[in-house]
Structure prediction request, 732 residues.
Amino acid sequence: MPDLEKVAANNTPPGGSPGRFFQRFTREQRYLHGVLFSTFLGLAGTGLPLRFSESIWARGLARGVGGFGAILFFHKLCAVVLTIAFLIHLKEIFTRGILHGEKGIFWGSTSMVANWKDVKDLVGHLRWFVGLGPKPEFERYAYWEKFDYWAVFWGMIVIGFSGYAMWFAPFFAHFLPGWALNAVLVIHSEEGLLAILFIFSIHFVNTHLRPDSFPMDMVVFTGVESEEEFKHKRPLEYERLAREGKLESRLGEAPQTWQVNFSKVIGFTAIFIGLTLLVLTLSAYFI
Amino acid sequence: MSSSRERWAAGPIFPEKVDGRMTEAAIQRGFSLLAQPSPASQRTPGTWARALFRTAVIAAGIAALLLTAPGRLHAQAECLACHADKTLQDANGHSVTVDGDHFGASVHGVFKCNDCHINIKEYPHPDQVVKVDCKKCHADEASGLTGSVHANAAEHPCMSCHGDAHSIFPKADSRSNVYPLNIPHTCGACHGNDGMAQKHGLASVFPSYMDSIHGFALSKEGLLVAANCQSCHGSHHILSHTNPESPTYKANIPKTCGSCHAQINDDYMGGAHGKAVAGGNLKAPVCTDCHTAHSILQPTEAAFRMQSTPICGSCHKDKLSTYHDTFHSQLGLLGGYVETARCWDCHGAHGILPASDPKSPIAPANLIATCGRCHNGANRSFVQYQPHANAHDRKLNPALYFIRLFMNLLLAGTLTFFLIHTLLWLIRARYNQIKKKTAEGDKNA
Prediction:
C-alpha cells in the first residue's frame, strides 16, 4: 500500500518515524458533524438574507436561491434535517449514558461536561498566551471544544424552539403569551447571528486555521490523527491511555489519499462558504 | 337642386350643424317638423306657404346630403380645381394640396373653403392667405384654452391635437384624433419618449400610461369608458397640477378618480386619509400617492406590493421602522414573494380607520379575522402579536426590550471574549512555531 505510506509520511513531522494513527471520532460522529455543518451552512445562507433583508446582497442571494419562497423552503428543510440529527445525537447520549451506564459520558476526563480542570485550563491557557506560565496540557476535549459543543447544543435548542414557534405560530400561541411571538424572532435572529459569527470566525480559527492545525484539522473528516499530533494536542489523554494500556485499542487505519482529498474539498468548500457569509454579514453592518 | 346646394354651401341652416355630429340631429329635427305640422286653426295661406317652403328646403337638404358624395359643393369644387393637385406648393415650398374626398367627409366638409380662409373671395386669390382662426366658431374651446398649459397658440395650435385641418372628425368618430381610443396617442405624440414635453422638462407619461390598467383597458380591450388623458386632465382647459382649480390638483384628485371609482372614493373619504385631505391637510395621501398617476399597477402585482410599503412609510416613519424589524418585512423585502403582509393588508387600503373604530380591520374584535386571512388557526393569543413592536422601547415593550438586551449582551460578550482569546492564541502559537523552526534550523546548522 504505497498510498498509505505516502499519506502517513505526509502526516509525520520531518525527522519523525512514519507513525501510527489513532481513532478520535467514530464514523457516526463524523457523519453527525457533516450533517451539522452542511445544514448549518444552508440555514445560515438562507437565514442571513432574511436577517439583513435591507442589505444590497440579500435580494440577490434570495433571487439566486430562487426567490423568497425557495429560501424559506430550504431553511425549513435544513432545519428539519438538523433537528433529526440532533434528536439522534440525544438518543445516543441517552442510550450510552443512561441505558448502558457508560462511564465518562456525563462526568470525567472523556466527558463533554465542563469541570474544574477546564476553568484552570482556560486561565492557564490565557496566561500562556501572554507568557505568564506554561502551556496547559489537555485531555480528550479541551475547554474551547466543550464550549463549541455546548454553544451548538444550546443554540440548537434556542434557535430550534424559536424557529418552530414562528413556523407554527398559531399552534404555539396556545401555550405562549402574545409577546412571546414577538420575542421568538428577536431570539431566533440574534442567537442565529451569534452562531454564525462564532462558527465562521472563532470555531474556524480555534479548530482549523490556527498554526497547529492550519489549514484544516482533518480529524473530523477522516476520524484519525497521527500519533505525533495526538501527543502534541492532547498529551493528557495520550498518557492516560498509555497508562491504562488502552492505546492499542484506539489504533486506527491511516486515511487513504482519496479520503484526505475528498475531505479537503468538502472542508475547504465549507470554510469558503462560511467565510463568504461572514464577510456578507459584517458588510451589512458597515456598508 | 343647384339652388339648394348653394343654400347648403352658403351657411348652416341649423345651428346644430356647427358641431359635426349634429348634422344628423338637424335632419331629425327636420323630420319632426314635417311630422308635426302647425295646428289646422292656424293654417293661413301664409303659413301653408312657409311650411311648404321649409319642407322643400329640408327635403332638398337631405337629398343633397345623401345623393351628392364627393365634390358635392360647388365652392369647394372650384378651389379643388387647383388644390387637388398633389404637387401644388406655395411660395415657401409647402404643399397646399387638399384631399377633397377626405375634407368632404370631415366634420367641416359642409363648409366652403373661404368660410375658414376668409380673405379668399375670388380667383385669382392673394398669395398670402390669412391664418385660419378656429375660435371664430369655436369660441368656447378657445376660451377654455386661455390660461391652460396649452394656451400658447403658436406652440400648441388646434391641429397639434385635432390633426390635419382638412381631416377633422367629430370626437365620437373613430377617425378622430380625439376619439377616446386615440387620445393617448395624440397626447403621447408630445408627452412620450423623445416628445416635445421632455424638451420642456416634463415626464414621459405616455409609455407609463399605456402599461397601466387604464392604458391596457383602452388599447387592448378597446373600452371607451377606460380613463384616457382627458378623463383626468380635461381637454381644452388643462391646468397644471399645481393649480388649485385643476382636476389633477392634489386636493381634487379623489373627486377626479372618484368620478369613475365612486365606491372607492366613498370608502376613502370616510377613512383617515380622506378626512385629512378634506380637512385641508395636503400631506395626507390621495389616490395618486399610492397608485401613481400614470403607471397605475395592479395592487396584486409584485411590483406594486414591493413599492407600497415605502410609500406609507414615507410619512409613517416610526411604523415603517418597527415593521422592518418583523418577519413580515424581512420576507417581503426579498421580493419574488408577494404574500407577506404589507401595510394595507392589515390596515385596509382606502377607508383606513384607527384601531379604536370598531369597523377597522385592526380593531381588537376584528384581529382574529384580519390575521386569519393569512394565518390559518389564528386565535386570541396569536393576535396579541404586535406587528409594530419596538424592541428598543423599554416602556412600550418591556419583555421584548430585555430579551433583546440579553441576546445582544450574550452575542457581544461571547464574541468579544473569544475574539481576544483567539487572537492572543494565534499570536502565541505563531510565535512558538517560529521559535521552534529557528531552533531546529540552529540544530541542523
